[in-house]
Amino acid sequence: MQVLRSFNASLLTPFDIRSLARALFPPVEYDFFESKWTQLAGRTVERNTTLGPGDPRRMVNIDMLMGTGNYTRAEGQAGYEPLVQEQCQQTGMAALVQTLQLATPQQPFATIVQGVDEPFLCFAGRLTAAVEKQVSDPAARKLMIQSVAQGNCNAVCKRIIEALPGEPSMSDMVGACAKISPSSQEVLAVHTAVQPAVATIVQPTVATAVQPAVPAAVQPAVAAAVQPAWVVPQGVQQQQWGAQARKKQRKAQKPTAVLFYCARCGRPNHAANACKATVHVNAESVVIDSDKIHKVPLDAFGPLGDGMSAFLMGRSSATIQGIIVHLGLIDADFSGQIHAMVSTPTPPLTIPKGTRIAQLVPFKSSVSRTEDRSRGDGGFGSTGPPQVRWTAVLTKDLPETLCTVSMVGATPSEIHLRGLLDTGADVSILSLAAWPPQWPLTLAQTSISGLGGTKQCYVSQNPVAITNPEGQTAIIWPHVTEIPQNLWGRDVLAAWGVRLGTDF
């Protein structure tokens, strides 16, 4: 992985990546690499269709990303636009890394333990290689290596690391533990091994003391005679002994040695995906000036790791201060800064930076994914079609909405217009003053009535997309004339799926 990171720091064309793959993989693994590269390139091309018309990546195809077809020459690949070159390198290196990870057997990094006579540097190398393959975030990777190295090193190194001041880095640990000689490790191993034997030798042998011979017929009577008065009856004694034995057995089953530490809470001997601890998160400085819900940034970031999701809920200490944190869900594939939905019944309210207002309660989802789609940093929204539609209560005020009006290939490519929702208009009519002069118009063949008189009316020569705030789009050829107010007519409202009713 270190070698690949060194290569990735330089500009690599698809020709370079393919040459590197041929040197790394045998035929079967190379075929898998080509298949994975094609799959990732197809997804990238599909995502590029959503980019703006001026973005050079919008015209990229699979052959360009992979350097195949008409794009096999390395000189031509080096002349790509910088954004296209970056996308080619990201796609190819992702396929290379994924193939390399599948081709290499992976041992869970939490199970990597330093041997008694193993140098700490060798142990750190094995641990680092495993963490790099299983943890993608660089910051989390560094903390994970440091935490597991302290917990899974042998007893000699652990004593040395605990004696280091502050929070020692991996370099500090390696430097300190490199001074240990093999003889000291062997002495400690012998000491640890002989401790149980010594304890057995010095244990008193009371159970084998010489007992006087007593005839079998009188044994019960003698036993009753010599029994002290404070001895409890046999039935009760057996119950107590049974309870004590079970308690000792449960205590003995608990691990006494620290095998590894949890990556979430830092406590020993349980994995992060089995951790039941909550994680407290602090707010950034914010002023809540109304009783509406506000997005408050927290000092926590996703993904949480190990495929964990989490509920975001408020703390009682925040609620008693009038800070209401509404319940939220952090998906396992969310990446970016985590925000809380906060409101207060008594505005204005200032939340100083570092105030502990919420907590994350992690859990492992048992529902399989329906499709291979990552949320990314798209919080507070839906990755599918909208589930909550726009609803307005009719009042004396005009029902207006701000929409995005766009025309492909025009300059400017889009504008934002506020218009009146007019269910009485057959077609949408835009104000001539708001219409960009560069967008072509033609005289309308039909007249429009209902505008307070006869006016010269035009129609757009090219189709125009009208997108509402919910992301719903209508493709129309709008009419344009001299009116003071833009009108979104039934041609747009019907395409948006607007319906009138009283049962909302």
UniProtKB/TrEMBL annotation:
Pfam families: dUTPase (PF00692), Gag_p24 (PF00607), Gag_p24_C (PF19317), RVP (PF00077). Keywords: Aspartyl protease, Hydrolase, Protease. GO terms for molecular function: aspartic-type endopeptidase activity. GO terms for biological process: proteolysis; viral process. Residues 367-386 are annotated as: Disordered. InterPro entries: Aspartic_peptidase_AS, dUTPase-like, dUTPase-like_sf, dUTPase_trimeric, Gag_p24_C, HERV-K_Pro_peptidase_A2, Peptidase_A2_cat, Peptidase_aspartic_dom_sf. Residues 417-492 form the Peptidase A2 domain. This is Peptidase A2 domain-containing protein. It comes from Hirundo rustica rustica.
